[in-house]
Amino acid sequence: MDKKLIEGFEHVRYERPQLSPEEMIERSEQFYQDMDQRRTVREFDTRPVPPEVLENIILTASTAPSGAHKQPWTFCLISDLSIKKKIRNAAEEEEKTSYSSRMPDNWKADLKPLGTTWEKPFLEEAPYLIVVFKQSYGMENGEKIQHYYVNESVGIACGFLIAAIHQAGLAAVTHTPSPMNFLSEILERPFNEKPYLLIPVGYPKAETYVPDIHRKSLEEVIKKF
Ligand code: IYR
Known about the structure:
FMN, alpha+beta, Nitroreductase, oxidoreductase activity, two-stranded antiparallel ribbon, NADH Oxidase, 4-stranded antiparallel β-sheet, 8 strands, 8 helices, Nitroreductase/BluB, binds 3-iodo-tyrosine, single chain
């Protein structure tokens, strides 16, 4: 591989196959059509999924760009039923309070069409839970390492993760229990890590219904200059 020193640091040559404009249009259209089939699913089949699939999905998420390439993320992969139960109990405890007293009426009205409640059976039924932690700073040999753009970096990694889950033929729900400090305790994460998202993953249940929602049109989301 070709290498070059830039300011004393080794750089490697980067090459990608060149696509024709027609191929680019075709591939981008295909990718969009496929991603447009993704839906958030809250009902899972308990059928097991090979662990390699989840490892590949997490590796894909970990290819995301990050501030100064610090890769400020940890993905906890949970298949152990007793841990899933602990997470479900703690999440439902918080959600019960949220739905009954923390969430304002307009928020609950906005969630009505989606059919969400404080009950989270998917936290036990999905064969895997991925709990994404953001590392506010790194720790190496007892030294604090500065991380940059942590929320942006971990958000992008979660986008890759969700796309990879869909691409593998699986489904997920981006669950955001709030507050979610209980995840740090159950999973015994160090002080520099904070929970970011909880993503149950699995096959959708055989007969699954999802809300009849529609995505914004190109005109609604794009402003051309
Ligand atoms: N965290 C709660 C409520 C909730 C909030 C949003 I924003 C959603 O899109 C869906 C649910 C829960 O997970 O039920």
